[in-house]
Structures are given as C-alpha cells and as structure tokens.
Recover the amino acids of this structure.
C-alpha cells in the first residue's frame, strides 16, 4: 500500500529527518521511515529539502535509508473497539504492543489500531433505497455496557442505498451495505471510517452553552461551573493536584464518555487510571468506569513527536462520539507538555523562537485545539458535545508564562491551583480568588430551573464571604485577629466553615468524593443560615467567644461526612440544631 | 566493515565533525584512536548526520585531537552495556568500564543504554512501602517501592548523609528475604562525596550488593550524559530480568543538566529557559521514568535522584522539571539546617504522590493518612503564626497561635530531627505524631475523622 513512491534520507537530527531535493510527498502526509518503517509525518516541503517528524525513536537510521509515502495524512481509525482501550499518541493499542514486544515499547511495531478480527453483534438501521448523507447512522453495536456505538456514513459522502446486509455478526472491515454515490461510483459501507487527526470533523451548527457539565466537585459545580461543550484550564505547579482534579472529573462528571489524554506525564499515573477505573463504577449507569473511558497514553519517556500528535488523536476520537450524539469530556494532562513538544520540534527545525523559546504559532495551535470543543447539532441531527479540560503545568508555578497566558485567552473557565493550599493539604487546591468561570451567566437559567431558584444567589453570597475574608486577612496578617470587631471575626469563622466544610472535598471518602447538586445547595443553605443566625446574635451584643464555645461550627464543617448522600433529609436536623444553638445562647446570655 | 576514517573536519568543544563518512547511523557509537604515544582510544556518539557528514560527541572530551591525527571507526551499534549479576560489588566509570582492577565483566547479555519506554499497560501500580526509619519520610512523604522520589537540596546541605541513611536503613516492609540491591550513579560529584558513599556502603556491610558508576567532577563532561543511563540499564536488568529490588541513587542531577546545556550550546541549538535546551524535560523524563514495577517480574526499580537547587531556587528549571516528572520530592531546607535539625527536611513542599495507596490499614496503620494530613495542615499554620509573631511579638499572640508556635518547635526538634543512626519504626513515628497533635486544641484537628480521633486521642485527654 505504501510503495508507490519513496525517497532517501539525507540527514537525521533527533526526531527530525530530512530528505534532499524535490519529492512527491504532500504536506501533512504520513510516511514510513527506514527499514523499521517508523511512522512519521511531512511537516515542511521545499524544492531543496523535505522535513519529516518521526513519531518513534530514530536511533539507528542512516542517510540513504528509504522513506515511503502512505498517500494519506496521519489519521485515526474510527470504529467499535475504541472504548475501554488504551492507545499511544498515534492510536496504536498498548495492549497489542505489549503482546508483541513485552514490557518495553520497541520501535517500528506495526499493530492494527483496532481489532479487525473481532465480530460485533450489529443491528443495521439502513433501508434499501434510502438516500443517505454524511453522518447518517448506518448500524448500531453494543460497544461496552455503557455505550452503544453508532457507525455513520463518513462526512461529505451522499448516495442511495443499493443493498443492505441483515443484522448479524460483522468485523469492522466487513461491508454491511453498498451505496450508489450521487456523483456516480459506488461506496462500500463498513462499521469503520478513517479521519485525519488535524482536521475537525464537521457539524451542522454550534450552540451556545447552556447545560453544565456536572462534576460532583463542589468548588467547580457551584463556584466555577463548566458547560457541556465548554473549555477549562487547570493550571498549577507540581504537587498542586492537577492530575488528581482531572481524575476526579473523569470519574464523576456526568459526561457519557471520557477521553483521557496522558500527554507527556508519568507512566504510573496511566497505570493508576487503568487499575482504578476498572474497579470503580459509574454512578450514572452502575457499569465500570472503563466502559465509558478511552485512554491515550504518551508518557513523558515516549517519543516527543507522538506527544504532539496525541492531543489531536484524542480530540478526533471525541468528535467522532459526539457525532453519534454523546456528550464527551476530554481530559488533557498536560497541555504544557504538548506545548513543550512543539517547542522541542520547533528548536530542531531551527525556527525563530518567540517568548521563552516557544514557537510563535503556539497561540494559534492552542486556540485551534480549544475551538474544537463545543455543543453542536451533528450532521445527522443529533446533539452532542465535546468539553475540554486541559491541565497546564506552568514553569515554576508561575502563571505569567506563555502557555498559561495563551490558554487563558481561549478557555472560558479557569481553575487556578494554589501552592499554599496544596501545602496545607487543602484539596482540591483550586483557589477561589484567582479562578473564574465565564459560563456562570449562561448556566444560571439551568440552575434555577433544575436545582433551585436560590442556587445562584447562595453561590454569590458564599463567594462574597470568601472575598471579605481575604481582605480581612490582610489586616490579620499585620496585627493579629484579636483586634477585629466581633462581626468581622464572625466573617472569618464562617469563611473557615466554608473553606473546610464546603470547598475542601475528600476524594478518598465514599460520600464526599462526588456530591450531587442538591446536596451542594443544601450545604450552602445550611452554612448561610448559620451565618444569618450568628450575625443576629452578634448584633444583639453576644460576643463571638460565646458562639465559639458551642461546637456548632465544627458540626457544620463535618456535615459533608456526617450526612450520607442518600439521606439529604438529615439537613433538616441541622437547621434544627442551628435554631437550638441560637435559642440556647439567647436563654443563657440574654438579658 | 571496519573502515577507518582519517582525520576530522571540525573540532568544537566536545563535538567533532567528520566529512566523507559512509553508512553512519544516528546514535551510533564510534571508536576513535589518536596518533600519540599511548595511542589513546576514545569513544564517541553520532548526534547528527547529514549525508556523508556526521557530528560526533566525544565522551572523553576532544583534548589532544587534531584535524589530522585521528582515526575513526564505526561500530554499527548504539552504546551498550555488558550485563551480568557479577557486576554486584564492582565499580565502573561513567560509561560502564570497570575501574576497580578486577578485570572485565563476562556478560550474560548486552543492552542498549538508552533503554526503551516501559509500556504503561505492563506496569503495576506501586503499593508497597519502604521503611526508611526516618520519621519525616516514613510518616509524611512515604517512599514506595518502584517510586521515583528525588531529594531537592542545596550546596552544603546534608543530602548525602540522608541518602546514605536511607540506604542503610531501607528494609522492605513485607518480605525481608528479598534482597535489596543499590546502584549508585555519580555524575560530576566531588571525590570526597564518592568516597563517603563507598565508605558508608562498606561500613554497613552492603557493598557486596552495590554497583557504583562514578563520573567524578574532573572526569569528562560528556561522559556524564551517559552515566545515569548506564546505571539504569543495569538497574532494569537486575530488577526485571533477575527479580531484585533495586534502589538507584543518582547524584548530582544538576551536573547532568549542566553537561547537557554545555553540549547543547556547543551544538549551537536554540536555548529555552536559562540556556537549557528545549528537550531538557524529555531527557530528564527518559531517566526518571525508568523506575517502577512490571507485571511479569517480582523485582522493582526505585529511584532517589539527588539534585542541588542552584541558589536554593525551587523554581529553577532543573528542580521544576524534575518535580513535574517524579512522584513527589523531599525538599531540604537551609533554615532548618541552620538550627542543626538533621535531616533538615522541609515537609511542606515535600510530597510523595504514591503515598496515598501504600499506607493505611493493611500497609502501615489505619490512622497514617489522617495523622499525616493533620500534621501538614497544622504545620502550615505554624508558618502564619510565626509571621504574625515577628510583626506583633510573641506575647501579643492569641492562645491558639501560641500553641501553634510551640507545636512547630516541637515538631521540628522531635519529629523531623533524629539521629543519623536512629531507626524509628512506623508505629513509633505515628505515635510521635499523636504526641505532637495532643499539644493543639482538639477543635483545631479538623483533618481527622472523628472515629479515629476518638480512638487515638480520647476526648477527656
């Protein structure tokens, strides 16, 4: 398939290989390099030389070795078998590689991206004589317990169905129907299609975001929500919990499908996801979490060029499932590693560096990536979404570096992780003062309709108290808290309750790891009710020390553990408790 | 196939270039012979090749080379290391040649020192902890078998002593029959440091289970770039082929990165941060990621790289990028060292990412995570109290803040500090933690589940 034209290597510099003179290759074309047929891509062409980036280790290549063109751009295979699987950056299944080469990933291994021997129990939905266009669903396959795979006519193809097979067992390469195309010619419909990773898959139209991606994480859902089809960035220095936050969202968010891209991160983390997600169950469906998860693992020690591609591989898979009408969330951990891969390759190409050595096209590449998110009507009329949650690993934890700054321009949700919170083991270490969400206004109607009409106002009050605390802390840092008037001391106390009892969330506690919006609302209401009652006590002249003598504040802090998620009626007891606390103080100390 | 190429076309720092070479492969090793009295032999690696022009990195440095006095021969393979279990107890130079006068190693096999990435699906998630007998590590930043946990230090801080103590005391939690093997890779360290480790290994009777790869401060710079790879190749062989538990100590990673910068700038590459090449992250990752446990072998590779932070700056590219790859870090602190606290571990920025899965019931004790969280959280507040005390004076502090000050001092003097030969077991460490927490008012202990709190600190106390 790839012997039509070839060229000889002229030079090798790390992952970059040059060919001298003019060649027949096309820009972006996939090529096979050398005797071991290493996968590469054409990234620059001129009459003097062709530049190729190679997705595998290049040691051992010699000038004069052959390069063969594949005839197509670098693509992924889209068919049943993607979910509950783990791929490298160019969609080679890691399990398949392990079968061939043991514990290490050797060079030049060719493995089919998806199992083309496996027969899938297929329900064919096409009718003979029907006119179909790109996106029309042709067959349904139960891919995993959680996901029904809907194979579609590839975009830009339209025609009339000539013949259709019956329901039955088919491999992904079997022809299940034939079309007579509108522009003449015939087309064999199979369960699979191919798509170049760098091109967004088309949709009919994009919608504004109006439905939240509920993550079960309080600080995200209440304070800084993300919409389905939205984009968010989690920046933070090392050890601040980026990966942990991403794992939590991947585990508990209400997306139908999770694509987890481990881009230049640790190998053990991918192993952890594999082990954990196989054991955990999806709260929505009760099936294992892996039944709705696909992993793309290009760990930090795998070849750098494939790291650059892994992000695109991931988002193309996500768009494909979006086209079936699913809500897909992508975890990209970490986009900084991807940016650094760009920088590394750009350096090898001797391009003129911009800020901090990053190439000047960093911003446009980032924006093109994040713009592939969205809530859309697909070509077949279904609605689906792709949400992107990208971790950013700023150098030295400094948010002013180019990747964080450019990412900030293109995402609408910013969850800034804070070192001092992480040092005090306050997790998630998302800082409420540096973070923001532009989706709040778009989503408030949804919250009012689906949760409660006071949700947004509660949220605003909570945030206001936290903001007051931070300005009070400026004073406390200078002169200590003893000199503050009692009402301000109360603000400090209430915000302590908010920080410990509400914002802090324990990922290892069975009830606290994922919390419904209803419980989040009730928690906020309880805390605010405590605030109102305490305030009124203070205004009646009760000193804060008397209030603190009761253990009501600590009781409220512990309610996240003490109230099981399926016994929300217990919140009434807490309201009762606050009333009793109020009355008791009045009786004991009142005039 | 042993064609010799006469002469060179360019010499620049540790890099030389040859024109007219045929069939040179990228990353191939070449042997060079110099026409001098000793017929000095040098090894080099091809780092760039264009048609008949190759750029070669000479491990021993380019001293004495001239454009005419050198013969170059291609070996046809990348740098390999001869491997055998006989290597235990031996000492090698920075690229794996014996320097202990005990003759060559008879290899069972030879491996490319560059290694290959471990397949994540073949990895096993590390869960068994290593008891180091050091409270600050066992209690708060637990070392797990198969982890990569660097020590971030500064010049003049006792990181070597800490590493030596870990080696002496590291016993393996569950199965003490398993033999622990230590591989020591030194990159550009002072003679005294290498000697210190050698002596420690001898004194503690482990030297039969140690392999040393030494590249000292006056050894060739380029050799340093290979030393950690050679050490890890030996480690992977012993762990995954032979089933040993291997502890790899690499010191000093800063010299390794400096060497990379030196070579990069002589190649004329575009620098990124602080002059380091853009591929620093990838290069460090290929070293650190060579740690772990795989599913079809009972051995493991645990790494403790040591790096000295230039100017004690944790945001410097070397510690920064290291922290993004490794599974946590142990940070040494000059202020604590100044107060004669040994080991001067600053627990707040220290972290062990794998700790959460290797401690608690069935591993250490059920309360371990809670105690650790509470100690971290309370010690973080000590910093605030101290800052306040320095502004308004200790007397003006509230009672709680005063308790925090006292807690902080006791924590540093009793929990973190311990003798260089003191080996505390985990129960002792946790009990010590409870002792300290009892100094604080009970309502301040907000990270501990009420049940555990009641069990270990009954309310009437």
């Amino acid at each position: 398939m790839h012997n039509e034209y070839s060229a000889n290597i002229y030079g090798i510099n790390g992952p970059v290989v040059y060919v001298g003179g003019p060649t027949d290759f096309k820009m972006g074309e996939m090529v096979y390099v050398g005797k071991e047929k290493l996968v590469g891509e054409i990234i620059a062409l001129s009459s003097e030389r062709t530049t190729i980036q190679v997705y595998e280790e290049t040691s051992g290549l010699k000038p004069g070795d052959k390069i063969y063109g594949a005839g197509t751009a670098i693509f992924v295979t889209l068919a049943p078998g993607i979910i509950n699987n783990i791929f490298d950056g160019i969609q080679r299944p890691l399990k398949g590689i392990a079968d061939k080469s043991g514990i290490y990933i050797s060079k030049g291994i060719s493995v089919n991206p998806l199992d083309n021997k496996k027969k899938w129990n297929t329900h064919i939905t096409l009718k003979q004589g029907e006119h179909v266009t790109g996106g029309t669903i042709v067959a349904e396959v139960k891919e995993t317990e959680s996901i029904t795979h809907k194979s579609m006519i590839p975009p830009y193809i339209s025609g009339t169905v000539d013949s259709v097979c019956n329901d039955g067992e088919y491999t992904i390469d079997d022809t299940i129907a034939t079309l007579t195309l509108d522009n003449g010619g015939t087309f064999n419909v199979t369960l699979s299609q191919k798509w170049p990773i760098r091109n967004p898959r088309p949709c009919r139209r994009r919608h504004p975001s109006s439905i939240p991606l509920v993550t079960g994480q309080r600080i995200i859902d209440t304070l800084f929500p993300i919409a389905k089809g939205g984009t968010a960035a989690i920046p933070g220095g090392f050890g601040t919990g980026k990966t942990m936050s991403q794992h939590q969202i991947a585990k508990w968010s209400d997306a139908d499908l999770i694509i987890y891209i481990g881009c230049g991160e640790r190998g053990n983390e991918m192993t952890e996801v594999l082990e954990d997600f196989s054991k955990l169950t999806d709260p929505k469906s009760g099936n294992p979490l892996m039944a709705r998860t696909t992993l793309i693992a290009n760990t930090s020690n795998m070849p750098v060029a494939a790291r650059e591609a892994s992000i695109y591989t991931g988002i193309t898979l996500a768009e494909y499932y979006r086209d079936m009408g699913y809500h897909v969330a992508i975890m990209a951990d970490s986009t900084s590693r991807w940016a650094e891969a760009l920088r590394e390759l750009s350096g090898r190409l001797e391009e003129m560096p911009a800020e901090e050595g990053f190439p000047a096209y960093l911003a446009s590449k980032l924006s093109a990536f994040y713009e592939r998110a969205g809530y859309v009507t697909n070509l077949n009329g279904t609605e689906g979404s792709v949400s992107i949650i990208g971790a950013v690993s700023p150098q030295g934890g400094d948010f002013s570096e180019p990747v964080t700054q450019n990412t900030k321009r293109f995402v609408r949700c910013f969850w800034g992780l804070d070192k001092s919170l992480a040092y005090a083991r306050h997790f998630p270490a998302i800082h409420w003062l540096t973070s923001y969400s532009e989706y709040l206004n778009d989503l408030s109607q949804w919250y009012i309709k689906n949760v409660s009409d006071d949700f947004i106002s509660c949220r605003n009050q909570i945030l206001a108290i936290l903001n007051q605390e931070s300005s009070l802390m400026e004073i406390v840092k200078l002169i200590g808290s003893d000199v503050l008037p009692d009402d301000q001391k109360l603000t400090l106390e209430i915000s302590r309750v908010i920080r410990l009892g509400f914002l802090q969330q324990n990922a290892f506690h069975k009830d606290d790891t994922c919390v419904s919006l209803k419980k989040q609302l009730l928690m906020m209401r309880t805390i605010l009710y405590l605030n109102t009652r305490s305030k009124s006590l203070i205004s009646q002249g009760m000193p804060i020390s008397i209030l603190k003598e009761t253990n009501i504040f600590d009781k409220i802090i512990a309610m996240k553990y003490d109230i099981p998620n399926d016994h929300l009626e217990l919140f009434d007891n807490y309201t009762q408790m606050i009333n009793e606390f109020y009355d008791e103080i009045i009786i004991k100390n009142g005039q | 196939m042993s064609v010799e190429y006469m002469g060179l076309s360019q010499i620049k720092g540790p890099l030389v270039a040859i024109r007219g070479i045929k069939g040179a492969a990228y990353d191939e090793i070449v042997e060079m012979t110099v026409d001098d009295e000793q017929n000095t032999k040098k090894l080099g690696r091809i780092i760039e090749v264009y048609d008949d022009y190759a750029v070669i990195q000479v491990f021993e440095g380019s001293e004495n080379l001239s454009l005419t006095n050198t013969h170059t021969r291609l070996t046809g393979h990348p740098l390999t290391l001869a491997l055998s279990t006989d290597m235990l107890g031996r000492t090698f130079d920075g690229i794996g040649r014996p320097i202990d006068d005990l003759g060559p190693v008879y290899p069972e096999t030879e491996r490319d020192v560059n290694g290959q990435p471990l397949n994540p699906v073949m990895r096993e998630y590390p869960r068994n902890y290593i008891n180091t007998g050091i409270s600050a590590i066992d209690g708060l930043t637990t070392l797990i078998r198969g982890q990569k946990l660097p020590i971030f230090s500064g010049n003049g801080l006792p990181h070597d002593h800490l590493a030596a103590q870990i080696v002496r005391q590291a016993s393996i939690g569950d199965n003490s029959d398993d033999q622990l093997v230590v591989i020591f890779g030194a990159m550009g360290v002072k003679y005294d440091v290498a000697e210190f480790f050698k002596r420690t290994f001898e004194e503690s009777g482990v030297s039969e289970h140690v392999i040393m790869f030494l590249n000292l401060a006056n050894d060739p710079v380029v050799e340093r770039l290979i030393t950690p790879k050679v050490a890890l190749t030996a480690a992977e062989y012993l762990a995954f082929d032979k089933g040993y538990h291997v502890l790899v100590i690499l010191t000093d990673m800063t010299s390794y990165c400096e060497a990379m910068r030196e070579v990069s700038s002589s190649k004329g590459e575009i620098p990124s941060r602080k002059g380091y090449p853009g591929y620093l992250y990838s290069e460090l990752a290929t070293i650190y990621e060579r740690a772990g446990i795989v599913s079809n072998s009972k051995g493991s590779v645990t790494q403790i790289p040591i790096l000295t932070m230039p100017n004690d700056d944790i945001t410097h590219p070397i510690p920064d990028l290291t922290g993004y790859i490794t599974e946590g870090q142990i940070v040494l602190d000059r202020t604590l060292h100044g107060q004669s606290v040994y080991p001067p571990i600053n627990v707040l920025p220290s972290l062990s990412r794998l700790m959460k899965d290797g401690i608690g019931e069935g591993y250490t004790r059920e309360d371990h995570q809670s105690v650790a969280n509470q100690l971290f959280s309370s010690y973080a507040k000590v910093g605030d109290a101290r800052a306040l005390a320095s502004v308004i004076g200790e007397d003006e502090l509230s009672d709680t803040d005063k308790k925090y000050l006292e807690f902080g001092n006791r924590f540093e003097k009793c929990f973190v500090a311990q003798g260089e030969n003191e080996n505390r077991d985990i129960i002792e460490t946790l009990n010590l933690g409870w002792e300290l927490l009892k100094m604080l008012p009970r309502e301040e202990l907000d990270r501990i589940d009420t049940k555990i709190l009641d069990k270990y600190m009954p309310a009437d106390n």
Observations:
- The two ends of chain B are 82 Å apart (CA to CA).
- The longest helix of chain B spans residues 368-392.
